[in-house]
Amino acid sequence: MELSATARVILGMLGFWPMSGYEIKSLVDNSTRFFWAASYGQIYPELRRLAEAGLIEGEAQAQGSRKRTVYSLTEAGRAALAHWHAGKAEIQEMRDETMLKIFFADAVGEGATESALEAKRDHHHAVAAELRELRAMKEEAGIAPNSAMRTLRLGIDWNDWVAGWCERELAEVRGERPRRRPRKAA
Amino acid sequence: MELSATARVILGMLGFWPMSGYEIKSLVDNSTRFFWAASYGQIYPELRRLAEAGLIEGEAQAQGSRKRTVYSLTEAGRAALAHWHAGKAEIQEMRDETMLKIFFADAVGEGATESALEAKRDHHHAVAAELRELRAMKEEAGIAPNSAMRTLRLGIDWNDWVAGWCERELAEVRGERPRRRPRKAA
DNA sequence: GGTTGCATGTAAAACGTTACATGATTTT
DNA sequence: AAAATCATGTAACGTTTTACATGCAACC
């Protein structure tokens, strides 16, 4: 069975430990959202579908009169998660407005390249700072799995790298001493 | 007026030179698609909307009995393009299955981190190679604007960098002499 | 007593892809 | 003569976001 986009993130999260739909959403919002978002409008219906398909199981855990359903993986669910993980990754989509602005700069005119590069650099600086805060919080809480921390590290390093790339490109555009960009073998 | 996602790429493309919907689609498919895709189902209706709004103008340029409409920016369209370009970039979306797999590796089990890192490395290698081919073609054709070539260069450098990051991480995971990762000031 | 956080859900709207439909021209 | 490419468009389907709706519990 082909897992929907949202099913992948739900099964993965429940693979860490059992949780409610609400918890899945908050976890997504301060972790995978940078590369894999999900909204309530997807999560709750998908939880129902996955339960019907027997990949997860919900257990009512009301607290007082506040109801709450905690889901966990079934055997079949854990197998589906492993199967997805072992398979070929397909989805790679990006929609990046800062790239689009750099791309079109020559169609816009004088100074457009510089402003677009500055904007992209600033954006990645800001995201890197946001991720560093997130990392500090997670390190303090100390519950995040190693693999989750790895993507956070990649996010920080990557945003730093892109900001640096923009900076070097800016120097070249502005005619400051042409910089040798670090070359890699093809 | 807020430009739709597709409107941005259409106005930008027409900013380079006048073209048909078909040409816009083929250009997108071998340039911006890596960070901003668009399908016929979006392009043709949007061309009509933009023409109605007075941002672009279509001119019938039939060749024999094959009809063809070439669109170009109006004054208002060029202004809208410049206005969008000068404004704050908002859209930054990503859906990256290789990241998701790295993130969940600890929930999946033994060896999952390694396979996920390898898959990501291979993916970025492949994209870098694809982009290098694209660059060779564009260089030969020699018509691509500088700003468009810049995003291509960024794409190549970026994919190389990510592949390298995965490789370094793999070395660490496999317990090969722990590598000092290049550090940047926060 | 008010605000924030926990908790679940749905409906409508917007967005986007895919497949289909059609037909001319150019290249092999 | 067939295949590829140029060219335009729509309909159906699926996905995703946004806004709305509801109510409890904990904290200040």
Notes on the protein architecture:
The first copy, chain A, is mostly helical and 186 residues long. Chain A has 7 helices and 3 strands, in the order αααββαβααα. Chain A has helices at residues 5-16, 21-29, 40-52, 75-86, 97-108, 112-141, 146-173, and strands at residues 56-60, 69-73, 92-96. In chain A, strands 1-2 form a two-stranded antiparallel sheet. In chain A, a hairpin with an 8-residue loop joins strand 1 (56-60) and strand 2 (69-73). In chain A, helix 1 crosses helix 4 (75-86) and helix 6 (112-141) packs antiparallel against helix 7. The longest helix of chain A is centred in the last third of the chain and has 30 residues, at 112-141. The first copy, chain A, is elongated and about 65 Å long. The model of chain A has no long low-confidence stretch (mean pLDDT 93). Chains A and B meet through helix 1, helix 4, strand 3, helix 5 and helix 6 of A and helix 1, helix 4, strand 3, helix 5 and helix 6 of B. Strand 3 (92-96) of chain A pairs antiparallel with strand 3 of chain B, so a sheet runs across the interface. Chain A binds a DNA duplex (28 and 28 nucleotides) through residues 4-6, 20-23, 26, 37-42, 44-45, 63-69.
Topology at a glance:
2 copies of one chain form a homodimer.
Chain A: H1 5-16, H2 21-29, H3 40-52, E1 56-60, E2 69-73, H4 75-86, E3 92-96, H5 97-108, H6 112-141, H7 146-173
Antiparallel strand pairs in A: 1-2
Helix pairs in contact in A: 1-4, 2-3, 5-6, 6-7
The structure holds a DNA duplex (28 and 28 nucleotides).
